[in-house]
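Q&A log
Question type: sequence-to-structure
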Amino acid sequence: MFQRIKGAIDRTIAEEQARARDHSPGATAPRASSSVSRSNSGTSTVKKARPKKPGQDGAKDADAGAADTDPAVFEAAFVIDDEEPSRSATPMPPNSHEQKNAENGDGKTEVTGEGEKSGTGTGNTGKDPDKNGEDEGRKSEGDKPIPPPKATTPDLPPDVRAKLRKLDKLEKTYPELLRSYRIAHGRATSIEPFERALRENTPLTTIKDPDALTEYLNQLNLKGDMVMDELKRVSSEKEDFKKKYDAADQEIAELKEKIVALEAAKSITETVDTEKTDTGVGTVKEEAGAQTSPQASAVKSPIQSVVGIFSPKQKPVKDEDVSKQDGEDFFSYDNEIPQLQADVDSKNQEIQKLQSEVEDLRNELATAKENSASLAENLEKVSKELSESRDDSAVKESLQTQVSARDIEIKTLTDRLGKSEEQLKELEAQLEKEKAATTAVIKDKEERLAETCALYSELETGLKKVTEAKAALDTRIVDLTTEIKTLRQSKTENEHKIDELNKQLQVAPPTPSTTAPSESLEIPATTTQASASSKKKNKKKKGKGGAGAAAAPVETHAAGDTSPQPPASPAVGPTISELQAEIVTLKQDVTSKDGQIEKLSKQRKTEEDLREEIETLRENLLDIGQDHVTAKDKIKSLEAERKQLQERIAELEKALEASSSSVESNGKLQAEYASLKQEFDDLKTRSTTLQSDLGAAEQLAQTRYKDITELREVLQKAQPELKSLRQEAALLKSTKDELNAKAAELRAMEKREKEFKTEVSRAQRLAADRETEIKTLREKLQSETNNRLRLEDSQRVSGRDLRRAENEKIELSAAAEKAGRELQKLQDEMTKLRPRVKELEEEAAKLRKENEIHREDADLKTSQYTNAQNLLGSMRDQTHELSVQLKESQAQAEGLEEEIAETRKLLGERTREAETMRRLLSEADERATSKSRALQDRLEEAEKERDKFEHEMLSSSRRTNRQLEELKQRVRDLERESKTLSEDKEALEGKEREWRRRREELEAVESRNDAEVAEMRATVGNLRSTLDASEQQVREAEKAKNDLRRSLDDYRIRYDKLAKELKSVQARFNTSSGIGSPTPTGRASMESSRSGSVSGGAGGGTPDTAYLKTIMLQFLEQKDNKLRAQLVPVLGKLLRFDK
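Response status: OK
Response body:
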């Protein structure tokens, strides 16, 4: 690619030189001298400069580092850059000694000038010497003789001719390039005034954001539309107000006329009343005569017309009076006086009516005046607003046309300065407020965290207590199971005894019925004594059954002595007494077992109390969880506030950047701006610290929330056990009260078995879910710890520069996500580095051979050395990341150990579940014992009934044999009942068999659980094997790390050797460049060597493409602008760009 660019440039040079040679034969020597003068910008020899445009030097002096230069300057630079490769073949004219000296100076300074170009990093140091050289060339134009063109043409070497041919080919593309550059330059120069106008007249600063410009224009259009709408609305309102005003004026005129008429009528009526009161009857006569007089003034007055309007009765009265006065005489006073009085009364009434109407009209006038005043005010306001709007529009137009750009700039600058100062003050106040708010919020969070820590410690203590109580309950349950087993055994023994007793009872009744009455009398006596003893036993329950049993055989012996049939009675009596004694002992056992059951029930009650306490603790835990949720919500709100603060800070930064453009014009405000910027940076650092504190608080809240969730899961696991215990207690109570609910209990047990199976499956699912959650949490913790370690390392490394530190943090966060890929990248880079090292060794050999190469190659090697050092630094970072990954693998091993501990816990839980199943079996046995007790109670009731019958036989001993037969029938009924009891017993035995079958099924379930436990152990073994494999991988990673360290040490040794050799080469170059050749033959040799080196460099540029690719990738991947600025000259030298 670079060879193509060089070939194209050489082609353009050759074409231009050929074109110049064809068109103007005398232009080759000045062009060559101009190229020499440009190359020898650091010397003070006499040269001929190329003629330049008048604005070129001024543009350079005005803006030396500006990017948008004039197209003429670009053209001159383009020509000079194109002609620079022809310096190696410039001929030496033999005319003057001055040109020889100049050429010798060229030979000296070509190396130094180009060395200065290669040595400068980013400066513009080569511009002032160019100017000096050009000025000196201009001064010495008249003194320097022009060499003849014929001497240059035949001496051109074939390389220059080929380049001239290439220039001829490039001649077609050059004007297009120049034209496109001029167009681009024109656009770039037109952008600045446009942006300046945007800054001065709009809130926009650049053309880069067209969306902001469209929004601004849309806002202006909206403003115009709103103003037009307001004008239309105001004009319509004005017209409405004018119409209302005209209507109100008309109403006011009419009302004024009415008021005038009313006031005149009122004055006339007042004068008439006063005349009447003063004159009396004579005046009445005069009035009557005046009424008869034919004067038209009083009749045709407007007052009378108005009175006539308001009093319609007046005119007919007047006509009647006139007719009467015409018809009657003046001397009839009696008839006229009452008429006059009636007239006076009617007029007084009319006057009162008129006064009330006048008052109403006055009120209406007042309201009309108020309305008219308000309308007038509104009209005045509207007219003022219209005039102001018109005046404002006129003023704006006149200001836009009259005010000049300088006044606008001054005003905008002053306004911006004032606004910036006000904004800075406001921002400082806002920042202080936000600081106070954030500090208060952080204090609240810390206090809440302390409270949550205290609650967490309390909960931990409560959980410890609960676990201890649970362990005690487990021990109690084990003890109870042992006791239940013993009771079960005693139950079985009692059942056997009861069976034997029933058999004996069935054998005992068939005694001879035809016994003597004396025998029948004696047997009831013995039975009464036995019944009395049994009653005493029922009252006292202990210690007195033996005496009754002893008395019974004595009496039976006495009865045997007195009985006439001695062989039959002594055989039956002792068997019954023994049976009764055994029944008494069995009853005592039953009572003792009832007492034990009561004790067990009390213990169960205490266990229920403990469970209630556990429920209260769970509720407390739920409350605390809700508090944590609220705290999380508050943390989210704080995060939103933090985002708002960041947005405000960004706005403040934008405002500060906008104010910085105005502050640059004023040197006085720069110190204040710097101080404000420092304060802003301090606030930024504080905000970052606050963000880190918030992150730590969030992490603490998350850990607390995770602990609470784990506690909740523990409680949820304890819940089914508590529920099962409650159900068992309820079942114990129900078994005491109800005997008929046995089948329902069996069904409930079957349901419970199914529920236990489902619970086992749920527990397995929960265990799997917890394992996955734990894995994810561990991965998150590992990533967070890795991020924290990397951030700490980056803070240690980047303590000097805050921006650099932020970039490194971002890179570290990105590197945390790419940690898995970087191992492969390390290996790939190692494989890439080995051929690179070989290439470096080859380049070192080339450096040893080529001791007389130019300083640019040495600079290239130094840049390669710096890049190699950067690569070494990256390798060190990668080794550090390998160590971090080692730590991660160790943490994973620890996590696997924790998982093994959790599996052990799960095994313990499975054993506990098996114990619960055994407990359920024991409870079933207890129910069977309760059934046997119920049977014993029935037997006791039967015995009581038998005692009652015997007592009746004692009372009815004197009755007939019929009563004996009835008693025998009753005995037969009792036998039937005993048979029914035996049948019930057989049914109970069948149920016991069913219980045993179910017990066997439960044992099969236990065996399955044992198989699952074995599978879990197998999984634990697999986990251990995976642990061993991971440890082997860690060892292999450590071995690879050691290998990398060894290779790095080897690379360091080789680089040190290369650095020493480079230093020696640089020293030799310095010595060789200091010694100049005074003769033209030395210059020719240097130029030939340089041309050979250039051609060699051109030829050797092909194998360095991989190196150039790596440097370009580093330049593109680098985010720090400073490091990019350091890499720019290296790229320029590699690509052989000129300044």
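Response note: The mean pLDDT is 70.
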